[in-house]
Specification:
Layout: H1 10-36, H2 41-63, H3 74-100, H4 104-110, H5 114-125, H6 132-149, H7 156-161, H8 164-184, H9 190-212, H10 220-244, H11 250-257, H12 260-272, H13 278-305
Helix pairs in contact: 1-4, 1-10, 1-11, 1-12, 2-9, 2-10, 3-8, 3-9, 4-12, 4-13, 5-8, 6-13, 9-10, 11-13
């Protein structure tokens, strides 16, 4: 596949792709919530990733990327399996959290925990170092999460029942997946990574539909929401997110993607007519500031350390 816009500065290209992924993911929260109001969890997974497969396969065939799959090394194939399993857990729990939550904006705010887990994993497995600015960012992000999830006398069952617990587990899976993908991004094309994720999730959805004997009949409105959301999510977001890692550091993509909650907020208000509570909104804004501070600290340290 030829590189798009070869004369464009790599950093500008990476930032543009990360922003495109951010806009796409913001719409995922809104359209998936709208669809989940009409279909059950298993129907949602089947159609969401079924549509994604319809979008991604022609794209990979037309661009010639599909021809690269047979030539992948054994190590790359093992990596794809690992990422597929991780994304199966991350995506399944994400949509479960969106279904259980009253407002998708709250779940979007809570997903800002992912950069914290990426930082911790980077220290543990990639030998990265930690600095005081990052620590401040982590503290701010955790404080924001506490504000979002705070209610008096909340039990563990209620914590997971409202989706908050599941997005926490989803963020852990997603963080490990990001670290794994970043380590092999030079060997595996972003389009193949996207296809791998979609195939794993679609196969799981098909198996669940058959085992549970779910109905394949859904309304026209739900079909439209699923078709649009899948185009913006598994296809566009997945491709743009993996592609951005080719041009810029994962830390820069985190700063950009942490702002998706603001777009989810606007989308939820316009499309679903719902807003988070004031405490949740304040907490969400604090998490965004926390991610920006933490990632800025990481980038500043790398700049001082030099190549």
């Amino acid at each position: 596949m030829k590189d798009l816009f070869p004369n464009l500065n790599p950093t500008v290209k990476g930032i543009s792709l990360a922003f495109l992924a951010t806009l796409g993911m913001a719409n995922v929260y809104v359209f998936s919530k709208a669809a989940l109001l009409e279909v059950n969890y298993y129907q949602f997974q089947f159609y969401w990733f079924g549509f994604a497969l319809i979008y991604i396969l022609p794209f990979l065939i037309i661009t010639g990327t599909i021809k690269k799959i047979p030539g992948l090394s054994k190590a790359s194939n093992i990596t794809l399996v690992i990422i597929g399993v991780l994304e199966l857990g991350a995506a399944s729990l994400l949509f479960l959290a969106i279904q259980l939550a009253d407002n998708p904006t709250t779940i979007s705010f809570l997903s800002n925990l992912t950069p914290i887990f990426v930082t911790i994993l980077g220290i543990r497995f990639l030998g990265e170092r930690f600095n005081s600015v990052e620590a401040i960012g982590i503290i701010l992000t955790i404080a924001g999460v506490i504000l979002i999830t705070y209610t008096r006398d909340t039990s563990i069952a209620e914590f997971f029942g409202k989706g908050s617990g599941w997005i926490l587990v989803s963020s852990i899976f997603s963080s490990i997946s990001i670290i794994t993908a970043k380590s092999r991004i030079k060997d595996i094309h972003p389009g193949i990574l996207t296809l791998n994720r979609v195939v794993f999730l679609f196969v799981f959805a098909v198996a669940a539909m058959i085992i549970r004997q779910e109905s394949f009949a859904i309304s026209g409105t739900a079909t439209l929401n699923l078709a649009i959301g899948s185009l913006l999510g598994p296809f566009m977001t997945g491709l743009a997110q993996y592609s951005a890692l080719k041009y810029i550091e994962a830390s820069r993509t985190m700063i950009i993607q942490s702002t998706r909650s603001l777009f989810v907020l606007v989308g939820s208000l316009i499309y679903l007519s719902i807003l988070p509570e004031m405490l949740q909104l304040i907490g969400g804004l604090v998490t965004i500031v926390g991610v920006i501070v933490m990632t800025w600290g990481k980038m500043k340290f790398k700049k001082k350390a030099g190549p």
